[in-house]
Specification:
Structural class: alpha/beta
Strand order of the largest sheet: 3-2-1-4-10-7-11
Largest sheet: 7 strands, mixed
Strand content: 15-25%
Number of strands: 14
Shape: globular
Oligomer: single chain
Number of helices: 14
């Protein structure tokens, strides 16, 4: 069995695919539960109330702990059943406190999955091009020219041309130990790129904790952080055993950092801090796995601008494409239409690298 959790914080269209399991994150902070989803506070041991800083990691913690303890499996919230109404009220959105714990898993898959993965409601992996790193972890010259992201207007588009069918996805997944996003070329090191948008000391502190807990990862950390190829989004699919080891590794580091006074100050300035730190930690862990010889693949990322079932494609594109960026060290903020920008300067392209070299020095 393959469980790929589609991480959602609001209503979203999720394609009908047996591999995909929509999960609402930040449910403990939300006014209502979303229909037809699992919930990141649906087990006793959860970090749902930390979602503002941990972002999609609250779903990763939920999936990990859902595997770990019988007590959690016996105390899961039921998804709102839009057919029978069980677990909900009149098939409508309900308050989280109305999602009372149940002592059965009716409506929730009880089998232990062989693979666990994570997509975002706006980002999936494409299964049309399967890019496998060389034994030394590098990509072939041909694969290095592939753009890591594909922009699509809507998640409702026909995804079959991107290999997005359950049989094909299952076949590809079962041929690998780990699958993640295709690395993106950047014009500086992974370490310096983080520092362009976040406080350098936060990354230094987390790496120090990682080294204290797991000194065997020093080579992978040095190699990845000094490289000019980055893995974004905290998106991956792993064999269950690898995921369990990764989750224990990741949260052991982040929870230790969360105890520090530095974190309490830094998160006020950078609310999504843990999510950004986890992106860099994932790159280190994945580099370590490559060096250990795991069977890996990297896939292009599909990015959707329209995912809201209550809005038209045009309405959502108009409201979601504009983003603002601050260009450190200068106190300059720029406003970009990301849909046009990504199509004019695709991620990883020479044009994108040149633009970054002008904006971030």
């Amino acid at each position: 069995m393959i469980n790929i959790y589609v991480v959602c914080h609001k209503k979203a269209i999720v394609p009908d695919n047996g591999c995909l399991k929509p999960v609402q994150v930040g449910t403990a902070l939300a006014d209502s539960c979303l229909e037809g989803m699992e919930y990141d506070d649906g087990i006793t041991d959860n970090i749902s109330d930390k979602n503002r800083s941990y972002c999609e990691l609250t779903a990763q913690y939920y999936a990990w702990k859902k595997l770990c303890t019988k007590e959690n499996k016996d105390n899961m919230k039921l998804p709102v059943d839009t057919v029978s109404g069980k677990g909900g009220v009149d098939n409508a959105l309900i308050k989280p406190q109305a999602c009372a714990p149940h002592n059965t898993l009716q409506g929730v898959q009880q089998d232990t999955p062989d693979y666990i993965g994570f997509f975002h409601y706006r980002r999936y992996l494409s299964f049309s091009k399967i890019i496998e790193p060389e034994p030394d972890g590098a990509l072939s010259p041909e694969d290095r020219r592939i753009c890591p992201e594909i922009d699509l207007d809507s998640v409702t588009e026909d995804l079959a041309r991107y290999g997005f069918s359950e049989p094909h996805m299952s076949e590809v997944i079962r041929q690998h130990d780990v699958i993640t996003v295709l690395r993106e070329r950047i014009n500086t090191t992974v370490y310096r790129q983080y520092c362009q948008f976040h406080e350098e000391q936060t990354l230094r502190s987390v790496i120090r904790i990682m080294m204290e807990q797991h000194p065997g990862y020093e080579d992978a950390a040095r190699e990845y952080l000094n490289s000019k190829q980055v893995y974004y989004f905290n998106m991956f699919i792993m064999k269950r055993e690898i995921f369990e080891e990764y989750a224990a590794w990741l949260f052991g580091i982040l929870f230790e950092y969360e105890k520090t006074e530095e974190y309490k100050t830094a998160v006020q300035k950078d609310p999504r801090l843990m999510g950004f730190l986890a992106e860099r930690l994932f790159g280190i862990y994945y580099t370590h796995l490559l060096k250990a010889g795991v069977k890996a693949a990297e896939l292009q990322c599909l990015r959707f601008y329209h995912t809201d079932p209550d809005r038209t494609v045009e309405e959502e594109i108009q409201s979601t494409c504009i983003r603002r960026f601050t260009c450190k060290p200068l106190p300059v903020t720029i406003r970009l239409d990301m849909r046009r920008f990504n199509r004019l300067l695709p991620p990883g392209s020479r044009r994108r690298l040149f633009f970054r070299s002008l904006m971030y020095r």
